[in-house]
Amino acid sequence: MIKYQIETDLSVEEFTEVLINSTLGERRPVSEPDRIAKMLEHGNLIITARHTGKLVGVARSLTDFLYCTYLSDLAIDEKYQKQGIGKELIRQTKLASPKAKLILLSAPKAINYYPKIGMKQWEQCYVLDNVDDLK
To answer: Is the dihedral of CA 107, 109, 110, 115 positive or negative?
Structure first.
């Protein structure tokens, strides 16, 4: 049985472990615990999935709860994938901010997953990594 809940004090170690075990760690600063700590500190909606107390999934979002919810990290331990945990974490995130539009950027390996669960893809997304790239 998987238990889903909002958590406000998720540890850096648990979060890092699920990032690594989900392959999302390939694109997250898992070797920088101070940076991971700030990610957790500033994520204001963190929903976890636990199996007998062990963290097996997490949805970390930034939201104003009324207009938009940016689901920044959706990580499911590979051993627990394909069991509906990711979909339920997304559902729990949306239920926690029902009036807000839920927005996420897909990891390359998950790009085909989101349309299968009913999410719509938009072309209007832009990314800026370096301020010097502004013209």
So the answer is: positive
pLDDT digits (tens, 9 = 90+) for 41-63: 999 999 999 999 999 999 999 99
Output the CA torsion sign for 103, 108, 25, 76: positive
Which phi and psi (to 5°) does residue 124 adopt?
A: -85, 25
31 confidence band (pLDDT: 50, 70, 90):
very high
CA distance 107 to 110: 5
Altogether, the residues listed in the chain come to a count of: 135
What is this structure's pTM?
A: 0.93
- Would you say 42 and 62 are in contact if contact means Cβ atoms under 8 Å apart? yes
